[in-house]
Write a structure and sequence with these properties.
Layout: E1 2-5, H1 6-19, H2 24-39, H3 45-52, H4 54-74, E2 78-81, H5 85-96, E3 100-107, E4 110-120, E5 128-131, H6 133-144, H7 152-157
Antiparallel strand pairs: 1-5, 2-4, 3-4
Helix pairs in contact: 1-2, 1-6, 2-5, 3-4, 3-6, 4-5
Length: about 170
């Protein structure tokens, strides 16, 4: 177990999700959720499993997006059904990571959330987040898939060299 900065954990989780072939918007949301999940003492196993099975990340992201859309239209409490306990805890962390106020309650297999989309979240971020070695290594391995391969051409030209003209 090592303590890392919130920003480092979030950025690494985004890169790991991207390396697992998760689209950019969902990878960014996953990174915020992962940092919040770990900071709140959530189990690492669901995060590791989600990174091994990126369809899980997409499914959870779509559930969150649908809940946010429903909350923005009605302003009422929204219910998300999720019978899988590990997925339910990640959904709760995902909702808690949103930049708006969220009142979250659970009832059996349902998550009930009232989002105040106009009010900023009052939750604070801890300076440090504890990450287990196995999860950290898994995230680093997946993140490495996004790096430009080391070659003479990449070293001499840099990433994206020659793609834009400067005046």
């Amino acid at each position: 177990m090592t303590d890392r900065s919130w920003t480092e954990v979030q950025a690494l989780a985004v890169k790991a999700a991207t390396g697992a072939a998760v689209p950019p918007a969902q990878a960014l949301a996953f990174g915020a959720m992962a940092a919040r999940h770990l900071a709140d003492g959530g189990a690492e196993a669901p995060l590791a499993e989600a990174l091994r099975n990126p369809a899980t990340i997409l499914t959870l992201a779509h559930q969150i997006e649908a809940a946010i859309e429903a909350a923005s239209v009605s302003g009422e409490t929204v219910s998300i059904a999720q019978p899988d306990g590990a997925h339910r805890t990640m959904l709760i962390s995902w909702l808690a990571s949103r930049p708006c106020q969220a009142e979250i309650t659970t009832l059996s297999d349902d998550i009930r959330v009232h989002l105040s989309l106009k009010d900023p979240s009052t939750r604070t971020r801890p300076a440090r987040v504890t990450v287990g070695g196995a999860l950290f290594d898994q995230m680093q391995d997946l993140a490495a898939r996004t790096y430009v391969p080391d070659s003479a051409a990449s070293r001499s030209g840099g990433a994206g060299a020659g793609l834009m003209e400067l005046d």
